[in-house]
Design brief:
Length: about 170
């Protein structure tokens, strides 16, 4: 009885899920191809893939809600409540969101790689260091004296940066 009542919805759900899985596969393949071409490390590739998967999952949930009969006004009330709460929360942690967004931008368009020695032209705290790791929120930079500095991704996009030496620690890109 249940299956016969919702037979069309299950067929549409199957089509939606298969379509989104194909889109996910193509996206992951494209991200990997772009990353390998630009010498980006595997940790950053996995991070971008995770962002794509979460986004596609949220899209699938919205589509499925409509397939099973949710009305736009019902979802509008739900999303306006969620966005009000998220808006307040994100305003409190906007720098984290800024760093994640910068990390995504840096994944696709960042001229420096792990192992490169760079000079960050900051008037208050100039840094000359080797990029040890590029993460979702910050870069790990190793100073000449051995100290580890974490530098926020959003500042990396705001400051002038000079490449001092390509792959200063001898990694294969």
């Amino acid at each position: 009885m249940f299956l016969s009542n919702y037979q069309n919805e299950f067929i549409i759900s199957g089509i939606v899920i298969i379509s989104l899985l194909i889109i996910r596969f193509i996206s992951h393949f494209t991200i990997t191809k772009i990353a390998k071409k630009n010498g980006i490390n595997d940790a950053r590739i996995r991070l971008m893939r995770r962002y794509v998967t979460v986004t596609l999952f949220l899209i699938a949930m919205i589509i499925e809600a409509f397939v099973f009969g949710a009305q736009f006004k019902d979802l509008a009330v739900l999303f306006s409540s969620i966005f009000a709460i998220l808006g307040i929360a994100l305003f409190a942690i906007w720098s984290i969101l800024s760093n994640v967004t910068s990390g995504i931008i840096m994944f696709f368009n960042f001229p420096y790689k792990v192992g490169d020695k760079i000079n960050i032209h900051d008037k208050d705290f100039p840094i000359e260091a080797i990029i040890e790791d590029i993460r979702a929120f910050q870069l790990h930079l190793r100073l000449d004296n051995g100290d580890l500095v974490t530098y926020p991704n959003n500042l990396m996009l705001q400051k002038a940066v000079t490449l001092v030496k390509k792959d200063a620690i001898g990694h294969d890109n």
